[in-house]
Amino acid sequence: xxxxxxxxxxxxxxxxxxxxxxxxxxxxxxxxxxxxxxxxxxxxxxxxxxxxxxxxxxxxxxxxxxxxxxxxxxxxxxxxxxxxxxxxxxxxxxxxxxxxxxxxxxxxxxxxxxxxxxxxxxxxxxxxxxxxxxxxxxxxxxxxxxxxxxxxxxxxxxxxxxxx
Length: 164
What we know:
This protein is mostly helical. It contains five helices and no strands. Helices cover 34% and strands 0% of the residues.
C-alpha cells in the first residue's frame, strides 16, 4: 500500500502511545532478523481489532507479517500497554466532558449461557444428524445409518412387488 488508507495510526495518537511501549527485549543469541517497527506493528494490531479480520489476513495488507503483529500484541498486552492507554483516554475525556462515574454499566458479559448445559451434557446422535434436523422425542434415529465404505445406490422396487 502506497498511501494512507485511513487505517494507519495518526501522528497524535502515536505520540501518546509510544512512551507506553516497553523496551525491546534482547534476543538470547544477540542477533536475529530486524524487528518490525513498533508503529507498523500497531497499525496491524489495530486493523485486526477494528475489523475483526483474522491475524493471517495481515499478510495481504502489507503492513507487517501476522506473526510479528500477534507476537507484539501479546507482549504489549502482558505489559499493560492497552490498559494504560485506555485509562489515559478515559481520564482525558473526563477532563473534557466530566464523566458521571456513579452511572456506569458494562455492555456485555463473558459467562456461561444459562441453559447451555454442563460439561457432561449428552452428545448428538452422530454425524448423520444434520445441523438443522430435529431429533424425535425418543431420541432414536428414523433411518438406518449409512453403510461404511463405498456409496451404494438404494435398492429399486420392482414393478409388481408385494411391498410396493
